[in-house]
Specification:
Elements (H helix, E strand, L loop, with lengths): L26 H12 L11 H4 L3 H5 L2 E2 L14 E5 L10 E6 L2 E4 L7 E2 L3 H6 L8 E6 L8 E7 L3 E4 L9 E3 L1 E3 L11 E8 L8 E8 L3 E10 L4 E11 L6 E8 L1 E3 L14 E2 L3 E5 L6 E5 L7 E8 L3 E5 L20 E6 L5 E8 L10 E7 L9 E10 L10 E9 L12 E8 L13 E7 L3 E10 L4 E9 L6 E9 L2 E2 L3 E6 L13
Length: 516
C-alpha cells in the first residue's frame, strides 16, 4: 500500500510497429483469439489447487516474488516485470508471454522465483503453478529503486498510481451487469503478451486477452510512467450472448464516510475514503458535473445521460492529511482516476453504483460508461480511451470546483427553523473564481429535483478559506430523497461545475442515527 508510483501513458494504436523480428505477432492476433473464443462455448480457466485457494491472508501475503528474478532485471530496460503468485483471491493462473526479437515466447513459471512464509506453504505450490498476473516497476527514485506503478491481477482488475501516490482506486477491462439483481459477472484476463522495451524507452506496450461467460475481448495498452500514470486503451469486445448492462472503462473505489455523511459510531478519523466524488464532462452541453459519493444503506444506481462524453472519473479531491489523520492508510495520497474517450462514443450514460459497506475493506463504488442500445452477439464493439491516474487535478478542469459539501438538520441553531428541512453548505474554489474580488456579483443557481423544495439559498465569499460558499435550505418531498443541483455564475458566464447531490430518506441528518 505504501509503494510510490509514476505516471503511465498507454497509447493503443493498431499501427504502432513491433520490434524488429517480432512482426509475426500484433494486436490483430489478439483480436482473432478473442473473436474465436466468443464464437465457442465459454470454458472457465482451470483453478489452482484448493489448498492455495484456501490460504490464510497472512500466508498468501508471505509469498514474495524475488526482485532479482524480475524480467529484464539484467538488461538496460527502465522497466522490470515482477510476477504475482496465484492463491487466495487469485484463483486461476494467467498465461504470460514476452514479445522480443524472436516473437512471442512464453514465460515459464519457476517456483524458486518466490520466497515462502514457511515450508508448509512452499510444499503446497506445484512446480508448474503459473502466475496470477504481473507488476511493472520503474526507477522513479533512482536507478537502483524498483518503484511499482502498475499491477494487473485478479479478474480484469488493474491498479495504477502517479509518482507521488499510494495504491487505491482500480480500473477494470470491462464491467458486466454490475449492480443488477441478476448478479455481476467478472470476466478475466487469461493471457498477456509483454513487449520488451528498448533501453531508452519510457513507454511500454502490452496486450491482454479477456474472457468470460458473456463476452471475450482483446486489449492493447501502452504505459508511460511519470507524474501521472496514463493508460491509452484500445479494446475490441465480442459478446457471446446479450448483455443487459455493459460497463466500459470501469473504475472501482471505496467510500466509507466523509464530510457530507455521518461517521459510524466509534470512528475517530474525520473521513475514510479512496475517492470522494464522481466527475463527468459532457460533450454536447460542455457541462462539468460533480456528484459527492456516499455509502448508502441499500444498493444505489444512478444514470447520468451523456452525448459524446468527454470524460468521467472518480476523484480524491481532498489531499490534506488532517482530513483523514491516518498514518497507515494514507488516504490523502490515494490517486484520482480520469477516463478520456477517443472519438465520439455517441449517446449513453455514466453509471454510478454505490453499495453499502460495513467498513473500509470493501470496494463499494463503481463508475463506468454504458452505451445506449442493446449489446447482442451479432455485434462487436471497439472503444479507445485514455485512463489517467494521479492527483486531484487529473481531469484538467478549468471551471471552479466543489471542495466540500456539509449537511445539517434545518431545525437547529445555525441551520434554520424549518421542520423536515436540511441545511446544505457547498464550497467552491479554483478556476475563474480565484480571479474575483470578495465583493464580486456572484450568484448561485439552485434547483430542487424529485419534488425537493428549495426554501432559501445564498452565496458569499469565505475570506478565511478563500472560497465561495452556497448555503441552501431545502425540504425533500415526503418519503423521497433530497435532490439538488447548484452552480455559480456571474452575469451570463458559468463560473463553476454543477454540484449534483442526492440524500435518501432516513439518512441520519434529520435526527435518525445511521446504523454503525
Amino acid at each position: 500500500m505504501g509503494s510510490r508510483i509514476a505516471s503511465v501513458v498507454v497509447p493503443l494504436i493498431f499501427t504502432l510497429p513491433l520490434m524488429a523480428g517480432a512482426a509475426e505477432f500484433d494486436f490483430e492476433a489478439v483480436i482473432t483469439k478473442a473473436r474465436e473464443r466468443a464464437e465457442a462455448p465459454y470454458k472457465a480457466p482451470p483453478q489452482v489447487p484448493k489448498a492455495l485457494r484456501d490460504l490464510a491472508y497472512q500466508d498468501y501475503q508471505g509469498i514474495r516474488f524475488k526482485p532479482e528474478s524480475s524480467l529484464w532485471q539484467d538488461e538496460e530496460s527502465l522497466f522490470n516485470v515482477m510476477m504475482v503468485p496465484p492463491g487466495l483471491f487469485y484463483q486461476h493462473p494467467v498465461r504470460m508471454n514476452v514479445i522480443n526479437e524472436n516473437g512471442a515466447q512464453p514465460v515459464v513459471f519457476e517456483k524458486s522465483q518466490f520466497t515462502y512464509p514457511n515450508g508448509e506453504v512452499e510444499r503446497l505450490v506445484p512446480a508448474d503453478l503459473g502466475y496470477a498476473g504481473f507488476k511493472l516497476t520503474f526507477p522513479f527514485d533512482g536507478p537502483d529503486v524498483l518503484n511499482q506503478f502498475l499491477v494487473f491481477a485478479g479478474a480484469s482488475y488493474f491498479r495504477a498510481v502517479g509518482k507521488d501516490n499510494n495504491f487505491g482506486i482500480s480500473g477494470r477491462g470491462v464491467a458486466v451487469n454490475t449492480g443488477l439483481p441478476s448478479g455481476e459477472e467478472f470476466p478475466s484476463f487469461v493471457e498477456f503478451w509483454l513487449q520488451r522495451p528498448a533501453a531508452e524507452d519510457t513507454s511500454m506496450t502490452f496486450y491482454g486477452l479477456l474472457d468470460g461467460p458473456s463476452l471475450a475481448g482483446a486489449y492493447r495498452f501502452t504505459v508511460t510512467p511519470g507524474e501521472e500514470t496514463t493508460l491509452k486503451v484500445e479494446s475490441a469486445l465480442f459478446p457471446r450472448q446479450a448483455v443487459e448492462l455493459l460497463g466500459l472503462a470501469p473504475l472501482t473505489s471505496m467510500f466509507y464516510y466523509g464530510e457530507n455523511t455521518l461517521a459510524p459510531h466509534g470512528e475517530w478519523r474525520p473521513e475514510v475514503h479512496d475517492s470522494d466524488g464522481l466527475l463527468i464532462h459532457n460533450g454536447v452541453s460542455g457541462e462539468w458535473l460533480w456528484r459527492p459519493l456516499r455509502a448508502p444503506e441499500a444498493l444505489s444506481i444512478d444514470y447520468f445521460s451523456t452525448e459524446n462524453v468527454r470524460g468521467f472519473g472518480l476523484i480524491q479531491r481532498d489531499a490534506d492529511f488532517d482530513t483523514y489523520m491516518d498514518l497507515e492508510a494514507r488516504y490523502d495520497s490515494r490517486p484520482s482516476a480520469w477516463i478520456e474517450p477517443e472519438g465520439d462514443w455517441g449517446t449513453g450514460q455514466v453509471v454510478l453504483v454505490q453499495l453499502p459497506t460495513p467498513d473500509e475493506t470493501n470496494d463499494n463504488i463503481v463508475a463506468f460508461w454504458r452505451p445506449d442500445g442493446k449489446v447482442s452477439p451479432e455485434q462487436s464493439l471497439h472503444f479507445t480511451y485514455t485512463a489517467k491516474f494521479g492527483g486531484a487535478d487529473v481531469a484538467d478542469e478549468t471551471l471552479g470546483r466543489v471542495v466540500d459539501t456539509y449537511l445539517g438538520d434545518g431545525m437547529r441553531i445555525g441551520g434554520g427553523a424549518e421542520q423536515g428541512a436540511v441545511r446544505v453548505i457547498v464550497d467552491f474554489t479554483g478556476g475563474p473564481l480565484d480571479e474575483l474580488t470578495a465583493d464580486a456579483p456572484v450568484v448561485s443557481s439552485v434547483s430542487g429535483l424529485e419534488g425537493t423544495e428549495v426554501l432559501e439559498n445564498s452565496v458569499q465569499y469565505v475570506e478565511p478559506l478563500k472560497r465561495w460558499r452556497v448555503s441552501i435550505l431545502a425540504r425533500p418531498a415526503e418519503n423521497r430523497s433530497l435532490a439538488l443541483r447548484a452552480y455559480l455564475g456571474q452575469h451570463d458566464e458559468t463560473l463553476s461545475e454543477t454540484w449534483n447531490y442526492e440524500l435518501p430518506p432516513r439518512s441520519g441528518v434529520l435526527g435518525v442515527l445511521r446504523e454503525p
